[in-house]
Amino acid sequence: MTRSLVSLLVLLLAEILSSRHGTEAACYPTGSNCVPTSPFMTSVSWKDCQQYCNKCRGYAVGDCVRVFNEYCKGNFQCKCKGNKIPLTKNRLELATCQLGL
């Protein structure tokens, strides 16, 4: 039991560290809210672009847009824009923002 729990935590941590969700540099193959895909077993619940921009970055609008640059090559990125709004005050939400979830 303990060994499988540790393995699951290691997989989850690896997924979090390998993902760059919500950053300007992250690219996604589809425009479905710029949400990374997760292995079935990790059950990570990612914020979509709108949620990330609202809760983590403090912007009113989050759009998943197609970007043609050397890095993304026509894939999609989350772009935060619009008026500044207060960040979430929920500690759990803030922690997940720091982890990129």
From TrEMBL:
Keywords tagged on the record: Signal
InterPro entries, per database record: Macin_sf (IPR038456)
Signal sequence extent: 1-25
Protein's UniProt name: Uncharacterized protein
High-level lineage: Eukaryota, Metazoa, Ecdysozoa, Nematoda, Chromadorea
